[in-house]
Amino acid sequence: MRQADNHYNILIIGGGINGCGIARDAVGRGYSVCLCEENDLAGGTSSASTKLIHGGLRYLEHYEFRLVRESLMEREVIWKMAPHIVKPLRFVLPHHKGLRPKWLLRLGLFLYDYIGGRKLLPASTSVDLRSDEVGKPLKPEFETAFEYSDCWVDDSRLVIMNAMDAAERGADIRTHTKVLSARYEDGKWQVTIAKAGKSKPKTITADLIVNAAGPWVDEVLRNVFGMNNIDNVRLVRGSHIVIKKKFQHDKCYIFQNADDRIVFAIPYEDEYTLIGTTDAEHSLEDGKPKISREETKYLCKLASDYFKEPVLESDIVWAYSGVRPLYNDGASAAQEATRDYVLVKDGSQPLINIFGGKITTYRKLAESMMVDIASVIKECGAPWTKETHLPGGDFAVNGLEQEATKLKSKYPFLETEHAARLVRTYGTCATTMLGEAAEVADLGTCFGGDLYQLEVEYLKKYEWARSAEDVLFRRTKLGIKFTKKQTTKLAKLFG
Ligand SMILES: Cc1cc2nc3c(=O)[nH]c(=O)nc-3n(C[C@H](O)[C@H](O)[C@H](O)COP(=O)(O)OP(=O)(O)OC[C@H]3O[C@@H](n4cnc5c(N)ncnc54)[C@H](O)[C@@H]3O)c2cc1C
Q1: Which run of H or of E encompasses 355?
Q2: Does residue 443 share a domain with residue 296?
Q3: What is the rounded CA–CA span in Å between residue 49 and residue 71?
Q4: 476 lines ligand 1 (CB under 6 A)
Q5: Whether residue 295 sits in one domain with residue 197
Q6: What is the mean pLDDT of each run of 10 residues along the chain (495 residues)?
Q7: How far is the CA of 356 from the centre of ligand 1 (A)?
Q8: Residue 18 near ligand 1, beta carbon < 6 Å
Q9: Do 363 and 79 touch, CB atoms closer than 8 A?
Q10: Is 43 near ligand 1, meaning CB less than 6 Å away?
């Protein structure tokens, strides 16, 4: 799709979920597309989320009906597009006597059930915590709860699946490539980009630029476009802690707090429970986001208010943080700022900025972006992403077990758990990765657990993996189980 002279219709700055979703949609419509990501794909906020494809029950309290409806509708769309990395999840919302009354919870869930075009996900129900197994880990004062459905997603893989599909359709995906400056001259953008490790920056040209730099969107406006007085997004850090499995069932809890916030406790990678998140004001000058002492205490305390067995700081095996680029709508409290996205066209030049957004709405955001792009440069193609699988997702929803059985019968030397993990990660692309392998020895060096060289080579070749961290934390979620020694062994493969 790239024209001979390094010219593209669209240059996208940022390889998070929004940049990659737009690249996929745009190239599928016939635009020529180049995406530049300064670090690794999903290296920003898009790998640090709570990993939910959800309507956001709490946003109903802020009357964000458009956002909730659009998000609810997207749950089943994205599940069908990528049934390997998306799964339905039941949420248990205990009634807390001092907080929201039961009638309000029922009303919220009634809306949640009926405004979002739910077809496959089960409706909400009430639960007697005194007799149901989901009540067992909770303190006895919690007697009733409500259960409802949303979906879980492997966030960073969703980004990478979009980038892979975009690349297969002809987009030029450049990782470790920073956009340094952009100047609009004689009807096109002159853009200077620098590839990590290369001494000389390069110039490419584009008809239009999409600024999808997430938390860095304002920084890009200042540093790349040389604009002043920029204050479009509010940066709010959210942190999660991971502890050893706190309960045996596969449902998730949503706990209310007296400060009006909610916190999730979600089963994570079979052996763990993920607890989060927080809302803390953040500045890019603070560097890579990290959980603070206050956030750690807050999450432990809130979870301990509900669980019989308290959550102690010493239980934490891992923590991660990300920064929400929330549209600066003037709300006073961080949790009240809108989670909706806003696309803003620059008045004088072909530049479109993205402020805010959620993983859940990335596909709809990309569709809205296409309307704006068509109005600025030229119209190209029609909406197409709703019914098209992401790489590896071409099987039925709820078909994971069947796919794992099929993979195991084709590659009988795989352990059952290994086959299941490969299907959960790669879907039907697991066979591309395994190729002609006929015995364990064909998988090459084992780096730890069931991660072998063949898989790592596949990730290097098809998924832009450049380091042990890319493999362990964004292409797979094996990092949490890896020892230092195993990580070092893997890192050596990357030099
Ligand atoms: C704690 C937390 C929990 C969340 N939970 C959920 C959830 O459960 N469900 C949900 O739907 N949403 C959730 N979100 C929101 C969601 O994660 C974000 O809205 C989304 O990931 C933002 O994606 P993005 O592509 O806009 O930004 P990012 O993923 O941050 O991508 C921007 C990219 O731009 C790159 N970049 C910046 N400057 C340059 C440059 N000059 N040149 C090249 N590249 C550049 C960066 O390196 C970065 O990778 C959560 C967010 C947080 C923080």
Answers
A1: strand 351-356
A2: no
A3: 16
A4: no
A5: no
A6: 77 98 98 98 98 91 89 97 98 95 94 92 97 98 97 98 98 98 97 92 97 98 96 95 97 96 96 97 92 98 98 98 90 73 92 96 98 95 97 96 98 98 98 98 98 98 98 97 97 93
A7: 9
A8: yes
A9: no
A10: yes
